[in-house]
Amino acid sequence: MSGEGPGAHGADSTPGADGTRRAVDPEAFGGFGSHGGFTVVDGELAIGGVPAGRLAERVGSTPFFAYDRSLLSRRAAQVRAALPDGVELNYAVKANPMPALLHHMSGLVDGLDVASAGEMLTALDTTVPAERIGFAGPGKTSIEVRQAVAAGVIVELESATELARVRLAGEQLGVTARVALRVNPPFAVRGSGMRLGGGPQQFGVDAEQAPELLAGIGAAGLDFQGFHVFAGSQNLDAESICAAQRGTVELVTELADHAPGPVRYLNLGGGFGIPYASRDRALDLGPIGENLAKLLDTAIRPAFPQARTVIELGRYLVGEAGVYVTRVVDRKVSRGTTFLVVDGGLHHQLAATGNLGRAIRRNYPIAVVGSTTEPATETVDLVGCLCTPLDLLGKDVALPHAEIGDLIAVFQAGAYGLTASPIGFLGHPAPHEVLI
Ligand SMILES: *Cc1c(COP(=O)(O)O)cnc(C)c1O
């Protein structure tokens, strides 16, 4: 038997009217419905069509991260279908820089956004040409800037210091550096899980300071490409994203009067969120696509006929295509609470424990791999193997019974997993990552 099962049981639990706990509506998760789009073979979760138990044997050790190629492709195709012609899609590498995954993504998108020289080198190993790679992020050192100028990527300037560094690197290397100005907008985006724009920021140059920087870019004789505005991340509200995009186009239209040349690159940011907790609703791409189509016709094309308009997405493209698979190593009851202790934890998957930029911790979707389609029979706390109470992967999770040796899947692990976790904490070995 193969097919999509009815639900990721124990993804979360909410108190029922009678005070008991029940598994929440699995449809609450993801745009793909049950198990975030993963298939179930004979009751067992499968990743890329391979049953997770078999996959664990192949990997040779737990825990591990597994990413499903077909889900990555499917998600990119969904975004493409929603975006109007003329809007390009970039992948933000920091969401998941695993080389094999990045290589797969490079065939699905138009460009890559990197945030360190290390990411840049990995990105340059793909087939994406340098002029389609943007390097953003505060604190680019002289050495990183020199690498970026030598590579020919677009350096997204975030300060006057960076402008001076780019100018110097270009002179020393005899290269006309490609640059864009990253602007900190005067507005913030409602509904963002993480704010990266509006108010005082370490990111980008305040819109008020942009004219001066633009004059500096012209004076330095750099190859001015255009603008980049990234206002926020993990947003599930389409209307807020549309408002940010409208605000960005308006802002850039004003700033373009001060630009040293035509705008050829317009990076509108992204911030598309994915559902992590049961109460989250998947983002509706429809209104975003319509809004972009309107902006293209009424504002972007008339003002910037030469511009490549770009949306940059990280977690939205890869987050739901990954699972963290970990094994139960102990099962114990403490004063009425059943604990499943697994061999993984926050040192690999910090975000699932609520310790990565979350004010309130909520359970990520969780399943017992071998009984994915079974109903929940007990409520447990799923904890990692680190000696800290922070290592809590699931609180009061309704799950089918799991024993020592059983595999547990923690979903939504494709973005900000391994590389966003304190791998050195407690000195356990690093997990494998596989792309299937
Ligand atoms: C981190 C980052 C992204 C990706 O954010 P997601 O929430 O993963 O989509 C995009 N652009 C910039 C500039 C970033 O720093």
Q: What this model shows, in words?
A:
The chain folds into 2 domains: 21-68 and 320-435, Lyase, Ornithine Decarboxylase, Chain A, domain 1 (Beta Barrel), CATH 2.40.37.10; 97-313, TIM Barrel (Alpha-Beta Barrel). Helix content is 26%, strand content 27%. The two termini are 20 Å apart. It has helices at 52-59, 69-82, 99-106, 117-124, 142-151, 160-173, 210-219, 238-255, 285-303, 315-318; strands spanning 2-3, 13-15, 21-23, 39-41, 44-47, 50-51, 64-67, 87-92, 111-114, 133-135, 154-157, 178-184, 192-195, 205-206, 223-228, 232-235, 265-270, 308-313, 322-334, 337-342, 366-368, 378-383, 392-399, 407-410, 432-435. With 436 residues, the chain is an alpha/beta fold. The protein has 10 helices and 25 strands. The strands form 5 sheets. Strands 7, 19, 20, 21, 22, 23, 24 and 25 form an 8-stranded mixed β-sheet that branches. An 8-stranded parallel β-barrel has the order 8-9-10-11-12-15-17-18, surrounded by 6 helices. It is elongated and about 70 Å long. Pyridoxal-5'-phosphate binds at residues 92, 94-95, 113, 115, 136, 230, 233-234, 270-271, 312-316, 415.
Treating each run of at least 4 consecutive H or I residues as one helix, how many helices?
10
Q: How much of the sequence is in beta strands? A: 25-35%
Name the helicity range.
Answer: 25-40%
What's the CATH H-level superfamily name of the largest domain?
Alanine racemase
Given the helix and strand composition, which structural class is it? alpha/beta
Main beta sheet, described?
8 strands, mixed
Looking at the structure, what is the overall shape? elongated
How far the N terminus sits from the C terminus, by CA atoms, comes to 20 Å
Global mean pLDDT? 91
Query: What ligand species are in this complex?
Result: pyridoxal-5'-phosphate
CATH class of the largest domain: Alpha Beta
Q: Low-confidence runs (pLDDT<50, min 5 residues)?
A: 1-33
What CATH calls the topology of the largest domain is TIM Barrel
| CA radius of gyration | 23 Å
Q: Using the 3D structure, state the CATH architecture of the largest domain.
A: Alpha-Beta Barrel
